[in-house]
TrEMBL record:
InterPro entries: DctM, TRAP_DctM-Dct_fused. It comes from Pseudoponticoccus marisrubri. This is C4-dicarboxylate ABC transporter permease. It is a multi-pass membrane protein. Keywords: Cell inner membrane, Cell membrane, Membrane, Transmembrane, Transmembrane helix, Transport. The keyword Ubl conjugation does not apply. It is found in: Cell inner membrane. One of its GO terms (cellular component) is plasma membrane.
Amino acid sequence: MSNAQPHEPTPDEGKSAIEQELARANVDNDPVAANQRLFTGTRNMVIALMCVAYTVFHLLVMNVYPLETWAYRLTHVGGGLLLGFLLFGSQAFGEDADATQREGLLSKGLLVLAGAGIVYGLVGVIAVWINGTVLGETLPPAWAMSTFGLPLTAGTALAIVHGWVFPHRGRMQFAPGDVLLALSAVAFTAYLIFFARQLQLRAGMPMALPGDMWSAITGVLLIIELTRRLAGLALVIIAGVFVAYAFAGPWLPGIFEHRGYDVKRFFSYIFTDNGVLGAPIAISSTYIILFVVFAAFLQTTRVGEYFVNLAFAAAGHRRGGPAKVAIFASGLMGMINGTSAGNVVATGSLTIPMMKKVGYRNQTSAAVEAAASTGGQIMPPIMGAGAFIMAEITGIPYMDIVYAAIIPAVIYFVSVYFMVDLAAKKANMKGLPRDQLPKLAKLAKQIYLFLPIVVLIYALFAGYSVIRCGTLAMITAAVVSWLTPHRMGPRQLFQALDNGARMVLQLVAVCATAGIIVGVIALTGIGSRFSTVLLALADQSQILALFFAMVVSIILGMGMPTTAAYAVAASVIAPGVINLGVAPLTAHLFIFYFAVMSAITPPVALAAYAGSALAGSDPIRTSVESFKIGLAAFVVPYMFFYSPAMLLEGTWFEIAHIAATALVGVYLLSCAVQGWFFGHANAAVRAALGAGGLTMIAGGWTTDAIGVGIAVVLVLIQRGRMGASDFARGAD
C-alpha cells in the first residue's frame, strides 16, 4: 500500500449538491482518514501492517482456523493494547503539564527505569518459555516466574506515569514511553497465553503463582491506561472504585462488607472468564470486531454513501426532510457500528448542516441526530452488538432476542419521526429543493448496493451463524463495489482491514475494563447482595424494582459506553429483577434500553455532546432536547413489561393490538412534547395529551379506551379552536 492519502473528489456535473457534500464529508470528516493523514513514512506503514494483521487474525480464527478460547481472547486483548499504545499517545493531567514538555533529566530517568523493568520482564517471559518448552523445566519454574514479574509491573507503572507527566508531541515517530507500554503488553500476554491451561486451574486460588499475579497486575494497568486515553476518566474511576472495593471489604458497613481478598488471588482471578476474559471480551473478540470491520468495508467501498443518498432522494424534499433522512441513515449505520457518539460524528457531519439549512435550530439539529444515532443500538438485527452480549449473558438464543426487539425499536423510530415532523409542521418548514437532491430514479438503478444488508438479514433469519452472516455481508459489500467507481481492489481491501482495527480499539479497551468490574462483582458477591437490597426496597413490587433498575442503568451509562454499562448493570440489577418474577428477556431488554438511552440523558449525554460540537449548540440544552426527542425510549420498556405481546409473546391479534395502541400512545406523547396537535396546543392540551399517551402504556382495553377518548375530545377541541380562529380572521 502506498503512502498516498485520500484526495477530495472533483465535483461531478452529474452529481447533486447532496452527493458532492457527502463525498466531501467522507474525506474531510472521517476520523480514520484524518488520523492517517497525520502520519507518513515508515511509522504509518508499520502501524498499518500491524492493524491489517490484527484484523486478518480475527477473521481467520472466526472462519477458518479456530483457536483455544482463552488464547484467542488474550491475543485479542493483548493485540488491542499493543496497537492502542502505538496509535494513541498519552495526554497529561492538568493544564501546566499539558502546556509544556519538559524533556529533562527526570523524563529520561523515568524512561530508563521503565525500559529496564519492561525489558527485564520481557526477557524473563522468554526465559520461562525456553525453560518450559526447550529445556523441559530443568530450572525451577517458580524462580523465573517469581523474578520477572515485579520489574515488568514496576516498569509499566513508570512508563504510564511518564506519559502523564511528559506527553509526547511528535507525530512522525513512536513515543519511547508508548513503545515500552506496547512491549509490556506483549510480555504479559505472552506469559498468560503460555500458561493459559495451568492458569485456568489455579487462577483465584491459593496455589496461584507470583508470575500470575504480576502479569495480571500489568495487564490491568495497561487496560486502565488505554481506556483513559480512548474513553476518558469516567470509566477508569468507576473501575478503580470497584478494584479498591475488592480489598476494602472487611472495613465497609452493611451489604458492602465482605472478607476481602489478597492481591495474588484477586488479580489472578481477574484474568479469567469471570473477569477480563468474560462476556464483554467474548463479544468484542467475535461479533463486535466482525461488524466493525463490516462497517469499515461499507465506508471504504462508499456503499454506505448510497444509504444516505437514497434517504435524501426519498425524503429530502419533504417537510423537515433532512431530519427524516437522519433518522433512517443514522439508525441504519448506528445498528452496525454500535457507538452512539461515533455514529453522530460519522453521519451528522452531513445531516446536521442540512437540517440547519431548512430551518431547524442548531440544538434541534444536533438533538435529532443524537436521538437517531443512539436508537440504532436498539434496532435489530445487529443492535450495535447488544443482542450478542445479551445472548452471551442470559443464554437466550440470539434470534429470540432479535425477534423480541423488532416492535419496540420500530415504535422508537416512529416516535422520533413524529417528533421531527411535528416540529417541522409547527415551524412551517419546507424540504430541500429537488434540484439539490440525488435523483431517485438514478439511485433506484443502483438498488443492488443494498445487497450487503439484504444478505446479512436473510442469512440471519435463515439460521446461519452470526459469524458466517457477517462474513457473507462483508464479502457482498466488496463484490457490489465492483459495479461502482469505488471498486474494492487490494489497496482498498488493505485500507478497510486497517480501518477496522483502528475503529475497534476503543471497544476492546472498554470491554476489558467492563470485564474488570464484572469480575469484582462476581468475586465479592456484591451483585447478589445488591439484588437482595433491591428486593427489600421494592417490597415485592416489580414496577418499583424496574424503576430502580432504570435509574442505575442510566447512571452507569452516563459514565461508560453502552457495552460496559449494560454488562455491569446486567450483573448487578438483573438478578434481583428476575427474582421478583420478571421474565429474563424482559428484564435484560429493559436494562439494555436504558443503558443505551443514557447517551441522550442529561446531564452527561455523550451522543448529544458530539452532536452539539458539530452544530455549534449548547451541550446541555442539546442534551435536554435530545432527551425530549427520544422520550419514547423511556416509555417503551414499561410498555413491553406490561404487555409481553410487544415482544411477540402472544397471539397475532394481541401483538397487533399492542403495536397499534403503542403507536397512538407515542404519537400523543410526541404532540405533548412539541406542543402541536391539529394546531398549536396550549399547556392544558399538552398536559391532557401527555396523560392520554401514558394511559396507553399498560396495553389494557380500559386504559386504551381512556387514551383514545382523551385524544378524540382533544381533536374536537382543537378543531373547534381552529374553526373559530378562521372565522375571526374572515370577519376581520
